[in-house]
Fold these 2 entries.
Entry 1:
Amino acid sequence: MARLRPCAILLAALLLGAPPGQMAAAEAPLNVTVEGLKPGGVILGVYAYCIPAKKGHETAGPNRSPEIAWSKGPSGTRSYVLIVVDPDVPTVFTNADKEGVTIPASMKRRPWYHWLLVDIPPSITTLPEDAGSKDTSPKPAGPSKFGVNGLNDYGGGRGAYDGPCPPWNDAIVHHYHFEVYALSVAHLSLPSGFTGSDVVQAIQGHVLARGEVVGRYALNPAVAKTLH
């Protein structure tokens, strides 16, 4: 299956900086839950963009977005932001998905954004299953009934949610952070087609609370067998 990983997009993405999970701790916690995922557990294949193939290495997954819920933010919460990010993506893809080679664990890594949803109204504390995706077809960025979707890092103008699809020859497990932020502003006023770095910068100084659930996923059989 072709991956949407244009070199120009990858090079530009190296400038994104640290993923939001490495930001300073917020003043209060949010209790975040993700359907079918215990903290530190394995993400189900139904929520993945790529799954192991019966023949070959990988095939298209169902790519459904899971139900995500969180506790109500503190007084003064005027909106929420959802970020789904994998900080373990290789910075160099020369050997990605290539027979006879392995992407070493020592390779420098960078964040890869799978879903950016901002301006979520304070009345919403649950995103139902399929709110961000129900298949692998491209979804546009822009307004939805749950908030405003940004561009994810799969390229080709894809917005909303696209699930895990790590290189099948990567030596490490990938970690997926489902992060929710309670903000003191109702709108971030981001430009059309905003990216992960735009969101990270825009929420600075507005975070009242945050919470996350981290899931794991791997397509490398030697790595995947260590997850269970």
Entry 2:
Amino acid sequence: MPVKPPIEESILLSLLREDSEYAFQLVFDRYRNRVYQLALFYVKTPSLAEDIVQDVFLKIWFQRRQLPELSSFEAWIYTITRNFTLNCLKKLAHEWKARAGWTKEVRQFVEETDYKIRDAQYKELLQQAIGQLPEQQQNVFRLAREKNMSYEAIASELSLSPLTVKTHMSRALSAIRSFLQQHGKEFLLLFATSCTFF
């Protein structure tokens, strides 16, 4: 059985302008792979290339009655493909930019939340450590840490000698370090950083 010669492009376009679905199918079959390959070359993603193919041929179908008399339908369809591909790339760039901004905000929120949680845990653990100190050591530590009083001022406040205050403070710090070391080394670093002035 002899193979039928392909229908001329001008005839296909004339039939297409007259709403011939058969002519549209022939146009689709003739150009689909070339449109797909061109789109894939730029977007690099098969699913996106398929979307562009659908957009291109939907445009052809919806504008079939307004199709101009073209010297080269092939050049015209490639122009449409290029335009849809550029629009797709612009949309992707915008989405990636928005996603990057959103990811940055989420990361910052997570980091801030994590810091707040860890800070609360540290403060709670520190209060537990202070609560286990003898009463005089607690008094000395709280006056030094919470009121930023000097050893001389604490000594005057508690009617102790500065040397006794220094001894209480040294023992308090040592006990708190041991407590924090048992309950989490990461909190020990925070404690060491916050107590460098003693």
